Amino acid sequence: MSKVVIIGGSGHVGTYLVPRLVEAGFEVVNVSRGQREAYAPNAAWKEVRGVTLDREAEEKAGTFGRKVRELKPDIVIDMICFTPGSAKHLAEALKGQVSHFLHCGTSPSRPPRWRRAGPSASTASRRPRSRAISSTRPGGMAFL
Fold first, then answer.
1. Staple 79 to which of 8, 26, 140, 141, CB 3.0 to 4.6 Å?
2. CATH number 3.40.50.720 is the correct assignment for the domain at 3-109+125-143
């Protein structure tokens, strides 16, 4: 059984993702600040190990990536990364240690002026800069 560590798994997306991972046979560890529970109840949460870490404080101390790595995950899903520096810190700590690292944070990929102005005639028809990649894990769960 593969171990999935999901950072920020009790938020909106994690509320629905975590039970699906459990039901698909993954061992799931939810890393959070411990300040709230999932939005919707699901019996699968009883199978999830919770680990409380304050990401901001641990990153300032330079220990967040190491503490995630010490959980010995096969897969890491990061749902709450907000800065490029934070992403880099975790990626460097996990390099060569996990089979998959999914970054689902909200670091801006375009200059802030584009976000404030909204789409213009020159940018409205552009295709998204990222692509969804689909693969099916043994057990039948498709990841997009």
1. 8
2. yes
